[in-house]
TrEMBL record:
Keywords: ANK repeat. This is Ankyrin repeat-containing protein. ANK repeats lie at residues 68-89. Gene3D superfamilies: Ankyrin repeat-containing domain. It comes from Quercus lobata (Valley oak). PROSITE patterns: ANK_REP_REGION, ANK_REPEAT. Transmembrane segments: none annotated.
Amino acid sequence: MDDILFNAAISANDRFFDENRDEILNLEQGTKGRNSTILHVAAKFGNVQIMKRVLDLKPSLLYKTNCEGNTALHIAASLGHSDMTKLLIMFANSQEVEMRMELLRKQNHEKSTALHEAIKYNHYAIVELLIREDLGLTLFTNIYGESPLFLAVDRRFCQIALHIIKTVADCGYGGRKGKNVLHSAVTNLAKSAIQC
């Protein structure tokens, strides 16, 4: 990605698009090494205005992945950028149903969805939003066999685990190395008892 475009994304300079209106902007170019687009960069730095402008000009970037298989939604969810996550979902909702589901259910190279990423970093509001959009996300497991509920229980994120249990009647219980949510709960209880 050229420096001018990269700097516009990290500095939230949305005037860049007005100033370069007559030029052909290659918004699909990626950063060296990571192959992140301007949308990924905007997601990382939480620049909602840049994201809006990019999506208006190049909506297909919504589904573009970087070298780790992450979309901008994965990045926004993992970093806890609620406004950005809402914007990406709102934009996806304006697409056809299949396209909307493709974004929400997109798995990266570890087969993690944006829901897995939000749970890993304990971003409750984003977890709540993603589950409200698609209850089926709770059935996905990553390459380690971890379901969203397993991740929440394993990391002792009780609020997230309770939300999944109360909201989703049929969610995944699988965990890594053939374990499940119950194994993780018992292990965590045993660890707590030893620490006391």
